[in-house]
Structure prediction request, 160 residues.
Amino acid sequence: MIEEEKEKSTSTEQNTTSTRTHLQTNTENLERFKPSSIYTSVSWLALGIGIVSYCIGLWNAEILLSEKGFYFTLILFGLFAVVALQKSVRDKLEGIPVTPLFYTIGWVGTMASIILLTIGLVNAEMTLSEKGFYGISYLLSLFAAISVQKNVRDLENINK
Prediction:
């Protein structure tokens, strides 16, 4: 009985030591991938510029209110889709289980939002420069949302 207790305490000490080593390694790896404050700030700035410029363009556009609603809904849908996609891709890379349905919905939502914007802009009665403006500000917003999501998650993992 005493031998069993010694074995248990020895195995517990070994597990604790290996866990500490593993946590130190993970912490060191996390610190290496910590986003710089400048990169984080620029990501937030790009997201703000993209969304605000897109919305100002919508506000000033001489299009029907239903068209404005369509384009506004598309940016909300696109932002949600890319954040969901980024989360599911990151979860897969980190070994966190992700259902294939959620992963697929993230991809389909992202592609659908971009395709719907493209179809809407091709058929819109706008000048080519207006169409380009909406396309660029939309893509800037989507890219910045992915970057902000990555930074938020990295910083959250480091602060744990």
About this structure: Residues 1-32 form one domain. The radius of gyration is 23 Å.
